[in-house]
# Entry
Amino acid sequence: MELSVHAQSEESDMPPVVGEFEPAPLPDPEQSFLMPDVPQSLVEETQLRERWFTLKPGLVLLADYTDFDQDNTSIGQVGKQQDQWEARAARAMFRGTVGTGYKVSYLLAAEYKGFETEPEDLWSLTDLSLAFPLAGPATKLTVGKTKETFGYEMVGDAANLPHSERVLSPFFVSRNVGLKFVQVIGDTQRMTASAGVFNDAWFSGDSLADNGTDVSTRLTGLLWDEREGKSFMHLGVAGRYVGADNDTLRYKGRPESNVADNYVDTGNLTADHAWHLGLEALWNEGPFSVLAEYNRAWVDSSASGDPSFSGYYLTASWVITGETRPYDRTVGYARRVMPKGHWGAPELVARFSHVDLDDGAVQGGSFDKTYLGINWWATRRWKFGIGWGHTWLDRFGTTGNTDSFLTRIQWVY
# Structure
């Protein structure tokens, strides 16, 4: 039997059909889209398919404009936040398989940094990994620079989420170097189990002993999946052991913004390690969905009184034209909306989030954030979004208020 490990399809792919591991082909739209886009025939021509080698290029472009309005207390807490454009992401990807019969998947992705004022390098390596099948496509071992197995917001890709930015960033890292196992459980693929060990000493320049080792695990399951994937309930639990780099840990985060300063920040904590717990749930009923996630950290730091920190969010979404965000059973999260009609698919989004880095002697601050926005999934690749958020920051004994307005343009190839 020919084995394939292309289980984790990327941003532009559809989830595999139940029982399969290769991404499903994009369905033909009911009609042409109002917004012009790359025809599927041209996409096929850019791919290489030989018996022993396949290559599929990809490109993700995200551009934002963020406007801030702060009261005087907020300015005193975090300084004046600058209204600005940002090339949020410009990532090139190359992925495919090598071999005949027994196929090994590869992924190479890099971010272009040339838009920055003083980039140290024009390109920054994002992913560099090989995935090996173990006894079949349901089990794989990934080795290299990759994502850890912790956090719904991070395991999935930002291009798929209903909200524009992640908020639980104090509790996970974007990428790490190591190895991870992913197991898709059962013939109907209703559960996934994953675990990994990571240490990026190779990139940081520190010794393996001085650079903290992370161990993470995640278990997901579908309580139900009915009406051909339009009605489902996903639950997940994750754990993470965080080794301290040079006996130091630091928790910091922005209020759902990639250009704001860190509104909450513990500073450097003398610590040996920390334990993280993650809980996640996604309910979907046709065009309606509710996504919730909770993270908690317990830090082993006797000098700081062994503090604990937490964060959570609740996101509600309604795709007005009736499309359902498709669920991918091979990785345990939902993909992005695939519009069907000529006018695309507008999606209304509401969110509440909370991050608390205050405990005992550690006063890193806490904030509450509300967000109201609309996404227009104009084609399978184009997305336009605009949203307003309000942040209440409690820090330094005061409460500051920030309004932010985010406009996004996204294209995924």
User: Anything to note?
Assistant: Residues 1-9 have pLDDT under 50 and may be disordered. Residues 254 and 260 are 6 Å apart (CA to CA).
